[in-house]
Amino acid sequence: MNELPGRCPTLAVWKFASCDGCQLTLLNCEDELTEIAGAIEIASFTEASRAVVDGPYDLSLVEGSITTPGDAERIRQVREQSRFLVTIGACATSGGIQALRNFRDVDEFISIVYARPDYIDTLRTSTPIADHVRVDFELRGCPIDRRQLLDVISAFLHGRKPRVRGHSVCLECKRAGITCVMVAHGTPCLGPVTQAGCGAICPSCDRGCYGCFGPMESPNTAALAARWQDLGVGPDDLVRAFRTFNANAAPFREEAGAHDER
Ligand code: SF4
Ligand code: SF4
User: Rg of the chain over CA atoms, in angstroms?
Assistant: First the structure.
């Protein structure tokens, strides 16, 4: 990312189909927000303020996935107004939990859930932002990690690459001295194929990772699935494990598909 000499860069935060948890992570940076506000003009962040400064913007943070025809049009407008566009969270980077629709008949859901299905204008799939426009950086997590978010904003301000790595949660366990729940207790854990960033929260609480940060770089999901089968996990549970927050991320989607007997 290039530096912006001579003026205060502007930040815009956008919401698509999502639960707002990643935007809340930004709000939760209470201690750092005043410092951020001194270095970057928060020009549009409607979850925090109704005051909106018109674009274009230097940095856009985009939360949420594309699930409606209106979304698909709006994200193109956001891209046109944004010098750099960073997607934040599982919804924006893989389609989110709402991408479970991609594996079933959406019309059936609509007819069951809504009293007036004719009011619903939706796409058959939930897809990540990168399927629709160019994305400069993707920040994973459900929700994202505040330290990684601050690093991405700092990287933008200082014209460097974010210090976000593509290795697995296992490395975070090792660094923190956490006993491996899979080796020690036979607890199924998605840590070996999940991108680091959370600080190995779940193994530190003696439970397996369920993959909320999505697939790491080059994950060997087939080898992990085979290990889980050795631990007695059946095909239905394997499908459920890979089809959660990042169900539509290619490595998880393909591994779940390999065990889906329906
Ligand atoms: S607990 Fe899970 S994430 Fe941690 S080392 Fe073991 S397999 Fe890897
Ligand atoms: S250990 Fe896994 S499921 Fe738990 S917070 Fe970290 S990435 Fe998410």
Answer: 20
Q: Is 173 in the pocket of ligand 1 (CB under 6 A)?
A: yes
Is the distance from the beta carbon of residue 85 to the nearest atom of ligand 1 less than 6 Å?
Answer: no
Q: pLDDT, tens digit, for every residue of 219-235?
A: 999 999 999 999 999 99
Q: Is 216 in the pocket of ligand 1 (CB under 6 A)?
A: no
How many other CB atoms are found less than 10 A from the CB of residue 135? 19
What pLDDT digit, counting tens, does each position of 43-69 carry?
999 988 888 999 899 999 999 999 999
* Residue 138 tokens, joined: 């993707």
Q: Whose CA is nearest to atom 5 of ligand 1?
A: 170
Distance, CA of 213 to CA of 142 (rounded, Å): 6
pTM: 0.92
3-class DSSP assignment, residue 7: coil
